Amino acid sequence: MFAFLKKTSENISRFLGQKQKKIQKDILEEILIESDISYEIIEKMLENLGEQISRDELRVAIDRFFRGESYYDKVRFNEIANSPIVYLIFGVNGAGKTTSIGKLAKRFKTQGKKVILGAGDTFRAAAIEQLELWSKRIGVDIITTKHAHDPSALAYDTINAAVARKMDYAIIDTAGRLPNQINLKNELIKISKTCSKALNNQPFHKILVLDGTQGSSSIEQAKIFHECLELDGIILTKMDGTSKGGAILSIIHELKLPIIFLGVGEKEDELIEFHENEFISGLLDSIFM
Fold this sequence. Notes:
InterPro entries: AAA+_ATPase (IPR003593), P-loop_NTPase (IPR027417), SR_rcpt_FtsY (IPR004390), SRP/SRP_N (IPR036225), SRP54_GTPase_dom (IPR000897), SRP54_N_sf (IPR042101). One of its GO terms (cellular component) is cytoplasm. It is a peripheral membrane protein. GTP binds at residues 91-98, 173-177, 237-240. The protein has 289 residues and is an alpha/beta fold. The chain has eleven helices and ten strands. It has helices spanning 6-16, 25-34, 39-46, 55-67, 97-110, 125-138, 151-164, 182-198, 219-229, 247-255, 276-287, and strands at 22-24, 52-54, 85-90, 115-118, 141-143, 169-172, 205-211, 233-237, 259-263, 271-273. The strands form two sheets. An eight-stranded mixed β-sheet has the order 5-4-6-3-7-8-9-10, with helices on both faces. The protein has a two-stranded antiparallel ribbon with strand order 1-2. It starts with 5 loop residues before the first helix and ends with a helix.
């Protein structure tokens, strides 16, 4: 069983008991609700299926859901060719944002890439210190500034340093307070615009970190960020500790954003790429023989 679906699978096993070759539609609906898939999605997926549903039938239904009306409607993460590739990272405090940045930097460095970090959460001194520890631990450069200094200037300096030092990646942290304060929203938009200016309007990645243990309840929070910033993708953290793995479907459906990485533990290498086929297979393995 894939680590990110372990708790989800255990929860399904407790609910279902023995795995089955075919399963009653109403029971399957309850199982999928237990996995934190929204009822609206479940209805759409199962509406054309009979009262007894097989593994293959459910796989086709989920595949169609991921694909959309056509192959071209499928939600994808758009890769960037220009260098340095900038990742501007957003998320509320406690979601695992700083840890995800460290893991992401380690992942790129392991691939032989040159990485620089930008400690842009200048509102929280502890966030700067935490990111400095990550930079030392994995051996990558970092740009910092004093507590409460302008985070947009920090982002600009980080990108300039990345260009001057011929870095492959620049990963920039941002403040993590809840996004329901208009001044913070404006600050995050300003940082994003500053990154665009520093890159001469070349594209960069705007990534939201979400706490996977919150499941579908994190969607409304994510919508606020997306409306302000036009995000490019999501990192879901703490997936090894949640039984709400089905929320992956809800998040993709509601936000129309790709999930690019999953955090599955505290170790440096416990950030894995999200692959929909693995997700679908893991979910089906939990239900069917």
